[in-house]
Design brief:
alpha/beta; about 35% helix; 8 strands; eight-stranded mixed beta sheet; Cytosolic phospholipase A2 catalytic domain; PNPLA_dom
């Protein structure tokens, strides 16, 4: 692996995993402290949320403060309308908007960023590199059975984790090399959708640094002790950079 401080096309691929995505914040904190600045960011699900906030210029330590200050009872509010999904998508939209600081066109963001969602009809990745950031994030984090699919341009879209829980290919397609790929949860391996074997092949590339924080024993939607999730991201990144 080349010196990441001297990598003008360095990319980050931040994977999904519910609240486990808080580990990405620890990763970003260590990179900042080491003087390592990515040029491209691709995110799936919670990785898209953290990546978007960072790409908008929010400091990683401030991101940790925001994470620990979230009122999860608001984010996880049950909808009033029947058939709207297990949780309230509008409450989620409001929480995402508050974290990012308002909507913006992806192509106008300070740092190149893409969010990955899944097109349910074609069973392919929908990579958002332009248009409404909030809409892209809503699609990327719409876990099937929890939130209703998001309809954009006539297509039904759901969580990007179905097709690419770690959006490594999306980062490479942006022109990033090398790429730091952060996995906080296993691939879904849903028949007809994602392939864990394909991701492992990409992670084996010489220009990819794979980081997998130790989050064993934690559930995707567990909101207690999120500071430990951030610390797990820090520890894994420190270890990876020392190798």
């Amino acid at each position: 692996m080349i010196d990441l401080r001297d990598a003008p096309a360095l990319g980050l691929a931040l994977g999904g995993g519910g609240t486990l995505g808080g580990a990405h914040i620890g990763v970003l904190q260590v990179l900042q402290e080491r003087g390592i600045t990515p040029a491209y960011i691709a995110g799936t699900s919670s990785g898209a949320l953290v990546g978007a906030a960072y790409a908008m210029g929010i400091d990683p330590h401030r991101l940790e403060e925001l994470l620990l200050g979230i009122r999860w009872t608001d984010v996880a509010r049950v909808p009033r309308r029947p058939g709207a999904g297990l949780l309230d998508a509008e409450a989620l939209r409001a929480s995402v908007t508050g974290l990012i600081g308002g909507d913006v066109a992806i192509e106008d963001m300070p740092m190149p960023f893409v969010a990955v969602a899944t097109d349910l009809a074609s069973r392919t990745a929908r990579v958002f590199d332009r248009g409404s950031l909030i809409d892209a994030l809503r699609a990327s984090i719409s876990v099937p059975g929890v939130f209703r699919p998001v309809r954009i341009d006539g297509r039904r879209l759901a969580d990007g984790g179905l097709i690419a829980n770690v959006p490594l290919q999306a980062a490479l397609d942006m022109g990033a090399s090398p790429v730091i790929a952060v996995r906080v949860a296993p691939e879904w391996d849903v028949p007809g959708y994602s392939s864990a074997a394909a991701l492992r092949a990409l992670e084996a590339r010489p220009d990819v640094l794979a980081i997998a924080p130790n989050l064993r024993g934690r559930q995707w939607w567990q909101t207690k002790d999120l500071d430990r999730v951030v610390e797990a991201g820090r520890a894994a990144t420190e270890a990876a950079l020392e190798e």
